[in-house]
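Postdoc handover notes: sequence design on the structure in folder B. Input tokens:
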């Protein structure tokens, strides 16, 4: 499985995991940790791995580099900005650090959908998923301008970009998107994960993230 072009992989790990009560990226998963699994899978389609964290030196995955936000306390947009700025490649795939069912096939598909756009973003009903999306480095000036204006929500910058919103119907041809977007916010989420539920969609409202 090869990406259409060389791409950088950015993992956002700068949150404080306040609702979980401990670092959710380091929760045990698949003989390692949640973030370790994401690094392993993302590396299959992105030769460069960048982890955006506010704790320098916390992650020691070989061949990856850890950086911190340039705009402090500006949420996911600050993390995406830092990752884009550090990326060596024009195409970048951004993912949150709390997705235990990260699917490289869907990530690769979104990179393919980036051609002719500045971002390829999954659309699930009325919601979009900006923290599992492909971005072109040309987004950087727009994101930086927004951050300078105090804007920290990713979607508030979208009106200034050429966005390819990829429909739920198209996503489901590649993978079970309801499962892929399962994210760990609370101890209850992790308990559900440990039970290995076969039909995660039945509990969808429990883990729908807010609007980043």
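Designed sequence:
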């Amino acid at each position: 499985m090869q990406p259409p072009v060389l791409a950088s992989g950015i993992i956002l790990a700068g949150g404080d995991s306040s609702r979980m009560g401990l670092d959710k990226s380091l929760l045990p998963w698949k003989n390692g940790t949640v973030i370790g699994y994401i690094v392993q899978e993302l590396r299959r389609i992105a030769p460069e791995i960048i982890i955006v964290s506010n704790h320098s030196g916390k992650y020691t995955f070989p061949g990856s580099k850890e950086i911190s936000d340039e705009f402090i306390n500006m949420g996911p947009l600050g993390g995406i900005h830092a990752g884009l700025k550090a990326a060596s490649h024009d195409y970048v795939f951004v993912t949150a650090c709390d997705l235990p069912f990260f699917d490289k096939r869907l990530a690769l598909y979104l990179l393919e959908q980036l051609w002719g756009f500045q971002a390829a973003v999954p659309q699930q009903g009325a919601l979009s998923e900006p923290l599992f999306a492909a971005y072109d480095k040309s987004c950087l000036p727009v994101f930086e301008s927004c951050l300078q204006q105090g804007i920290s929500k990713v979607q508030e910058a979208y009106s200034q970009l050429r966005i390819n919103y990829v429909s739920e119907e198209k996503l489901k041809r590649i993978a079970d998107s309801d499962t892929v977007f399962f994210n760990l916010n609370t101890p209850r989420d992790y308990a559900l994960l440990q039970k290995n539920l076969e039909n995660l969609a039945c509990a969808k409202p429990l883990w729908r993230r807010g609007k980043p």
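Context for whoever picks this up: Residues 47 and 183 are 24 Å apart (CA to CA). Don't rerun without checking with the PI first.
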